[in-house]
Amino acid sequence: MPGVYISYPFCSQKCSFCNFASGVSAPATIAQYQHTLLAEIRAHNWAWPPETLYFGGGTPSLMPAEFLREIMANIPGEKVTEATIECAPGTVTEEAVAVWRGCGINRVSLGVQSFVTKELRQTGRRHDAGIVAREIELLRNAGLPNINIDLIAGLPEQTLASMEESLGWIERLATPHVSLYIFEIDEDSRLGNEILLGGQRYGAARVPDDELTAQLYEKASQELRRMGYHHYEISNYAYPGYESRHNLKYWLLEPYAGFGLDAHSFDGRNRFNNADTFEAYFRTEKPPPTSSDPAEEHFFVGLRLLDGIEPSAAEWQRFAEPIAKWEQAGMLERAGSRLRLTPPAVLVSNEIFQEFLNV
């Protein structure tokens, strides 16, 4: 069954590590965006009822209650089994949670990133570990126990000891899902751009080097598995049965429709994306669809799952050379008829995936 992604690209502040099309905007821009987003949803031809729904951003937890209700009223909801909203810690209130539950939201993803105050302040985040703990308790008491926590390895000031502190909070809070990301150094974030320029702002000089970042990730991954989390996708860990149904659609190449700024869609063969600037989005400009190679997509996307993929006979033959190369390097392994990454390969997965394009 397909899914729906809705982008709400507004935040109360722009974090230094963020490379998404989101940020702080004027009230007039927000109002125009809400109008355009609703029009886009209402104009959609619902050829199928969605099974999952995901509000991303940005900070969708800042979305006004009436606007959220109006969005939900325009999406077929009779078959939705999982509806997720992303939240910045500090925005979860009793009133907001009551609205979310009333709208059918049954999963919450908290962008915690770290439980160490020094690391949080360096990136511009305003919360602390105590706020996160209180909001998780609020969510559970309100009947929303299906909670994800985001963590990032490679933040300024981060050390193995500080990662241990964050992991200690994860173990105590025991949310059923954790996403563990490695900070990506690119020009699309203020911090990444500052590092590339050799500057000092945003704690750029205090970002861990590649070796330490790898150690931070490996330590967190090992500890999460010890805590009973199943490592089911490169960046995602869950108690059994709590895997993100919506995000699994991306890796299993199931269809989904995206609405809003820079939102992407996939119909099973073609990919579509909305404009990534407000000016173009408000003009309802849509870049042309791009067709995808099913075999390339099977490897490039499917290998993100730790269970791997089951290549067809034609795919084994077509990709024989890169498969053999990475098997010999100890980065890919066969398990019966399946092909999967080995544990060390997770840290160089993008390099591996690239070799299955244009073959």
CATH hierarchy class name of the largest domain: Alpha Beta
Mean pLDDT: 91
Based on helices, strands and strand pairing, what is the structural class?
alpha/beta
Number of continuous helical runs: 14
Distance between the termini: 30 Å
Number of domains: 2
Main sheet makeup: 9 strands, mixed
- What is the name of the CATH topology of the largest domain? TIM Barrel
How is this fold's topology laid out?
Blueprint: E1 3-8, H1 27-43, E2 52-57, H2 65-73, E3 82-87, H3 94-102, E4 107-113, H4 117-123, H5 129-141, E5 147-153, H6 160-173, E6 177-182, H7 190-196, H8 210-226, E7 230-233, E8 236-238, H9 245-251, E9 256-259, E10 264-266, E11 270-273, H10 278-282, E12 290-291, H11 294-302, H12 313-318, H13 320-328, E13 332-335, E14 338-341, H14 349-354
Parallel strand pairs: 1-2, 1-9, 2-3, 3-4, 4-5, 5-6
Antiparallel strand pairs: 6-8, 7-8, 10-11, 11-12, 13-14
In short:
The chain has 359 residues and is of the alpha/beta class. It contains 14 helices and 14 strands.
Task: Explain this structure.
The protein is of the alpha/beta class and 359 residues long. It has 2 domains: 3-251, TIM Barrel (Alpha-Beta Barrel), CATH 3.20.20; 295-359, Arc Repressor Mutant, subunit A, CATH 1.10.10. It is 38% helix and 18% strand. The strands form 3 sheets. Strands 7-8-6-5-4-3-2-1-9 form a 9-stranded mixed beta sheet, with helices on both faces. Strands 10-11-12 form a 3-stranded antiparallel beta sheet, with no helix packed on it. β13 (332-335) and β14 (338-341) form a beta hairpin. α6 (160-173) runs parallel beside α8. The protein is globular and about 55 Å long. The mean pLDDT is 91.
